[in-house]
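Task: sequence in, structure out. Protein: Lipopolysaccharide biosynthesis protein.
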Amino acid sequence: MTAFDVPLYRPGFGPAEIEAVTEVLRSGWLSAGPVTEDFEGKYAAALGVESAIAVSSGTAALHLAMLALDIGPGDEVVLPSLNFVSAAATVALSGATPVFADIAGPHDLCLAPEDAAARITPRTRAIVAMHYGGHAADLTALSRLARAHGLALIEDCAHAPVTDSAHGMLGTVGDIGCYSFFATKNLAMGEGGMVVARDPALRERIRRLRSHALTVSAKQRHRGGPSGYDVDALGLNYRSTEIACAIGRVQLDALPAAHARRRAAVLGYREQLAGLPGLTVPFATRPAEEGAHHLFAVLLPPGTDREALQDRLRAARVQSGVHYPPTHLFTAYRERYGLGPGLLPVTEDVMARQLSLPLYPDLGEAGVGRVAEAVSSAWRP
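Result:
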């Protein structure tokens, strides 16, 4: 499946996931049903919240947040450009304008509260805080900023499932928390996501919007409930599947141990790469116990030829990546919103030098050593 001895990511599926999927297939119920409900309950309990809503992807979770908050034409949403494009896309597809703000700096790749504050206008409706690499954004400052301006705070927790922090459990501090369970995430289901919300009315709205805003669910109809139904809002099919949620339940049970192995790998990287001249490791001053460690990001010295370094790593059969090209520099956003280089100087500087090294629970001490040796050998700043 891969040309690399050490890939950027390796999935951690085993007999338990296979058996869970087999049980669903034997049941004959494939769309959202009892397994989905059980997974939702277990995930909510892990977060310490009342309920959670399983959806088809992290993108679906973010889009439902926009729809549930009635964000639309004429509105603005402040968010970091340093993120996967899906966050900005859900704003734009809702008819609102994504307003990009800078990150805090080389040691903190999350949204800078002071820059977010400078981007707020009378049209701003919400702030999206993305917990980059599984490390918490400054939710204390961002919550204060949102309250001061009457804005919703949406937490993009794509990198941080069931992750505690100095601010609280990530996804439960803001108004809405959105999680991704894509194939490469810490909790991986292939495709999938989850939404939590503080306000019960908002939760109910999200739950109904994920299934066409039908007034009667498929489960209710299957169990002899009303055969007719009404639709009183414009919803979508963002339901999860029983197969995905069966995998999710197994992955959730294994998540604490998987996070511990990720932490061990990160500590190994920090120690073995410490002597490389000019290397910056974001978030390295934070306690390793805080954060989901979804990515191990490093920043190369200014002027380093990143592609050449990646070529040398590739020759050593070690994969690397870049997370992420800044959204405001993509063609669609430049042309639609008149954006371009110079808008976010910190983001642009950092992302010209960012490199992601392999990180997954089964990387182990030997894998960390192999990558660290390859990076040291390829290091020519």
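The mean pLDDT is 95.
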